[in-house]
Specification:
The complex is a heterodimer.
Chain A (H helix, E strand, L loop, with lengths): L9 H21 L4 H10 L4 H25 L5 H33 L5 H31 L10 H8 L5 E4 L4 E4 H18 L3 H11 L4 H25 L5 H24 L2 H29 L9 H37 L3 E6 L7 E5 L1
Antiparallel strand pairs in A: 1-2, 3-4
Helix pairs in contact in A: 1-2, 1-10, 1-12, 2-3, 2-11, 2-12, 3-7, 3-9, 3-10, 4-5, 4-7, 4-9, 5-11, 7-8, 8-9, 10-12, 11-12
Chain B lengths: L2 E5 L6 H12 L3 E3 H10 L4 H6 L5 H6 L1 H21 L2 E4 L13 E7 L2 H12 L3 H23 L11 E4 L5 H12 L8 H22 L9 E5 L2 E6 L4 H4 L1 H5 L8 E6 L2 E7 L7 H13 L1 E9 L15 E2 L28 H10 L3 E8 L2 H10 L4 E4 L8 H16 L6 E3 H8 L3 H22 L2 H8 L2 H5 L3 H27 L4
Helix pairs in contact in B: 1-8, 5-9, 6-7, 12-16, 17-20
Classes of the chains: A mainly alpha, B alpha/beta.
Chain lengths: ~375, ~500
């Protein structure tokens, strides 16, 4: 077995399938790629951070390819916008792949080819910082909207309003998204999305809100365009990482076994659960995932000699991180599945037409019949 | 009766035309500002709707309820005005109001940009450059407004009955032409048109009552009126509030029956003849059951079969594309008519069956194929549009070809997925064909997984080991080709299995 890749026994295989299933349900429910759960999950199973990111981006390529067809059929894909973002996102991915590969190689010199604490630490830190910011801002908006009933529960629109006023030429018009956007803003959003997709495998998490709140794109078009974009970004990321020898196809295939079933259940959940509930569940699960990754950080710090403690403790840190991640993901998915099952059963009961017939002469006299 | 709707870009001359027309015809005039004042009195936040144009899409999405209230108020006011007789309306996108009422005479007035700049310079005391940029911004906002409020490109030629370029014709001559046009049979009212206006009025008044009543103000309701029958669908999570629906509609003029159906969404089923015993009915209702949807029926009357139509079915009749061919009159009354005697294409029986099983989403009759699209767009949001038997007067092959062409045509123009009844089974149900496909995909997937997991060492050597070092370019190609295949194959299996257990 090549030292970069781990051996997969039945227990590991089931854990990866479960990881895919949880990631798939969360992905369908939240509308992101689910990488925020799957990437650290694979790292917790002992996979090198770069291989975890590479395998996840490859997994995302196939999943987005399947998912974007439905959005395209519904007219939710702005191909022109996706084209602009793709060009800039490729630059972002390339930056991420270069940094990851460099850190991987520099770490490999001192710790062997299968271990790269510098790359792992870097990925974990970016993961923790970005996703903490996303989750905290979501929670803050939910709390704010509770105080202000007029706000209807949506997130703050200050950023969107700022960018709507900003008219840096050249301005590009997007017909399907019904938006006019400065090329410079597009470049910024594209590079950031590509960089994050390439660094931690989380692209949609940034891409979709950025399209909605920065570019002013309708929600359905943002989700469809991001998925369409993810197909190409995923393909490019997969090609780049595969060229460097970081893609573990076995992990990708096992992830599919769980994720492609889970995503259907998650999407079904979105249709039947209130938006506020989705946002609360999302932000709490993200925060728990971030916390789980933070627990693993001391291991990388020790290996890089920034921290000193007995190496035996590494097992405990890693086990706690893994346990925490799986527990939070499983609880999150259980909460979602309970809602899905409840809605599924409720739908079977929806069979009701109340008929009120009024006499034309005296409308007060009504007869009521329930079918 | 004449309803003249005059639209045009800012300072194009529509107000002047309306004034000249008033002088000549003595028809009452109503402007957009009059309606806005009324809307403000009722608490509609017009300012928020207007500023939503320059803000992000998310703001527009949040204002969906405000938009519904605004449209309901305007429609109800214009319908009331129409019930008093002729009238002229001038204002932004006026031609898009009262959808489906074909007696509207929709006029577009266009003026050269230079003239518009000149008028704006004088009226707003601006420099010509500033007036030009002001007009350009305003025109752009108007287009956004039409997309936001009416979901169409506002100034597409198909939305108008006549467009006048004031560079080549003066307002007095335009006025003469409009008066002559309004006298044409195509724009004069008949009983069935009156019924269409009455349906619009009833639906919009009901929407207004719901929006303004605190017990139903927060509900997500779909309202459809049809010959005095109001069909209201409400989502399951608002079941508790649904008890107030009949109370809120109490004493609503013109409402003789209310059907309240609990549904998460609506399925529109369009065809020429309905049969409650047919396999198609069973499939559509089965799908509605799975999705928690109400089924709305739209009976299509082909222009050559109009003489067979009886309005006594309670259907909401809309003119065909060629207006003069719809000559039948509204005969009134619904409940006592015998469906055996009056051939309504099985609409009444099918709707009764839908009410019995608790899936009724209302019904309507549309004369002429081209009217379907207008009606689908104005009726509301659908989870699915099902196109059933059509072109029944043609041969079997022609029926299939024409139906396919028709579906392709409307598929591109509406956002809801459109499907034929023949495709229902393969798309949403699990039959023998799907079973074979599932077995095939499953066999392939098992083979691929077995091959990969019994040759892990070789695979890793190829992806990252010595083999990869020799041929670095090969593994990206293999990954690029392999991933879509495995994702599609396994994705199909997962989708089909979930279809079997009715989760989609």
């Amino acid at each position: 077995m090549h030292e970069l890749f781990i051996s997969i026994d039945i227990s590991t295989a089931w854990q990866v399938v479960l990881l895919g299933f949880i990631g798939g349900v969360l992905s369908g429910f939240i509308g992101s790629g689910g990488a925020f759960f799957m990437t650290p999950g694979m790292m917790n199973l002992g996979l090198n951070g770069v291989v975890a990111v590479a395998s996840n981006i490859t997994h995302k390529f196939g999943k987005a390819l399947v998912g974007s067809r439905k959005h395209a059929a519904a007219g939710n894909v702005d191909k022109k916008m996706a084209g602009f973002l793709l060009v800039t996102a490729v630059i972002g991915i390339q930056i991420a792949v270069s940094i990851n590969s460099y850190l991987f190689k520099s770490g490999a010199d001192s710790h062997g080819p299968g271990d790269s604490p510098a790359a792992n630490l870097y990925i974990s830190l970016v993961f923790a910082i970005i996703l903490s910011a996303v989750a905290i801002s979501m929670l803050r908006d939910i709390l704010k909207s509770k105080e202000n009933a007029e706000d209807e529960g949506g997130p703050s629109m200050k950023i969107a309003e700022f960018f709507a006023r900003l008219k840096l030429k050249p301005i590009i018009t997007f017909e399907i998204a019904d938006a006019k956007v400065s090329l410079w803003v597009l470049i910024g959003v594209g590079i950031a999305t590509g960089y994050l997709a390439g660094t931690i495998g989380v692209g949609g998490f940034i891409g979709v809100p950025a399209m909605i709140y920065v570019l002013g794109v309708p929600t359905a078009v943002a989700a469809g365009t991001e998925l369409f974009l993810a197909t190409f970004m995923g393909a490019y990321g997969a090609l780049s990482y595969a060229y460097h020898g970081f893609v573990d196809l076995r992990f990708v295939m096992l992830l599919y076994l769980g994720s492609l079933v889970g995503i259907h259940l998650g999407v079904y959940g979105v249709k039947v659960v209130k938006e506020k509930y989705i946002r609360v569940v999302t932000s709490v699960i993200i925060l728990l995932c971030v916390f789980s990754r933070i627990i693993a950080i001391p291991v990388y710090l020790r290996k890089l000699e920034f921290l000193s403690y007995a190496p035996e403790l590494d097992t405990y840190f890693q086990a706690s991180s893994k346990l925490f991640l799986f527990a939070s993901g499983s609880i999150g998915v259980l909460v979602i599945l309970v809602q899905v099952i409840r809605a599924y059963l409720q739908r079977r009961k929806i069979q009701k037409t109340l008929l009120v017939v009024r006499q034309p002469a005296a409308q007060q006299n009504s007869s009521v019949k329930i079918a | 009766m004449a309803i003249v709707m005059i639209s045009g870009l800012y300072q194009s001359g529509q107000e002047e035309l309306a004034q000249i027309l008033v002088k000549k015809t003595k028809w009452p005039v109503i402007g957009r500002e009059d309606l806005l004042d009324k809307a403000r009195e009722l608490g509609v936040k017009i300012g928020r709707l207007e500023t939503a144009m320059v803000k992000g899409a998310i703001i527009k999405e949040r204002l969906a309820r405000e938009k519904e209230l605004y449209l309901a108020l305007i429609t109800a006011t214009l319908c009331d005005k129409a019930s008093e007789g002729d009238f002229i309306y001038h204002g932004r996108m006026g031609h898009l109001l009262l959808p489906g009422v074909s007696e509207r005479l929709r006029i577009c007035v266009a003026s050269p940009m230079e003239d518009r700049i000149d008028r704006t310079t004088k009226s707003l005391n601006l420099t010509p450059e500033k007036a030009k940029s002001y007009l350009e911004q305003l025109d752009e906002d108007m287009m956004k407004w039409s997309r936001f409020i009416h979901q169409v490109e506002g100034y597409a030629p198909g939305h108008f009955d006549a467009t006048f370029n004031l560079e080549t014709i003066n307002l007095r001559n335009v006025c003469e032409i409009i008066v002559s046009m309004a006298a044409l049979p195509d724009f004069s009212s008949n009983a069935s048109e009156g019924r269409q206006l009455e349906n619009l009025r009833l639906a919009s008044k009901a929407k207004l009552r719901f929006a303004l009543d605190e017990r139903t103000g927060g509900m997500d309701l779909q309202v459809q009126a049809n010959n005095g029958v109001l069909t209201v669908t409400y989502p399951p999570h608002q079941e508790k509030s649904s008890q107030y629906i009949p109370e809120v509609l109490d004493n609503l003029e013109g409402c003789r029956e209310i059907q309240c159906t609990m549904a998460e969404t609506n399925i529109l089923w369009v065809q020429e003849r309905f049969e409650p015993d047919s396999a198609n009915f069973h499939e559509v209702t089965q799908l509605a059951q799975r999705w928690g949807a109400a089924v709305e029926l739209m009976r299509l009357v082909a222009p050559e079969r109009e003489h067979e139509v009886s309005i006594s079915s309670g259907g909401n009749v809309i003119h065909p594309y060629t207006k003069k061919s719809c000559k039948f009159a509204y005969t009134g009354g619904v409940e006592d008519d015998d469906p055996e005697e009056a051939d309504d294409g099985g609409l009444t029986l099918t709707q009764e069956e839908l009410i019995r099983i608790g899936k009724s989403g209302g019904s309507q009759i549309v004369c002429g194929y081209s009217r379907i699209l207008d009606n689908v767009k104005s009726s509301g949001k659908y989870a699915l549009v099902v196109i059933g038997n059509m072109f029944l007067s043609k041969g079997h092959s022609a029926q299939i070809r024409l139906t396919r062409e028709f579906v392709m045509n409307i598929r591109d123009r509406i956002k809801a997925p459109v499907i034929t009844t023949d495709e229902l089974k393969s798309e949403f149900f699990f039959g023998a064909k799907q079973g074979l496909k599932l077995l095939g995909c499953l066999a392939l997937v098992i083979l691929i997984y077995a091959a990969v997991f019994t040759h892990q060492e070789e695979l890793i050597a190829f992806l990252s080991g010595p083999m990869h070092e020799k041929m670095k370019w090969l593994s990206p190609i293999v990954v690029f080709l392999f991933i879509p295949i495995i994702a599609s194959l396994y994705g199909s299996i997962a989708g089909m299995i979930l279809k079997v257990i009715n989760i989609d």
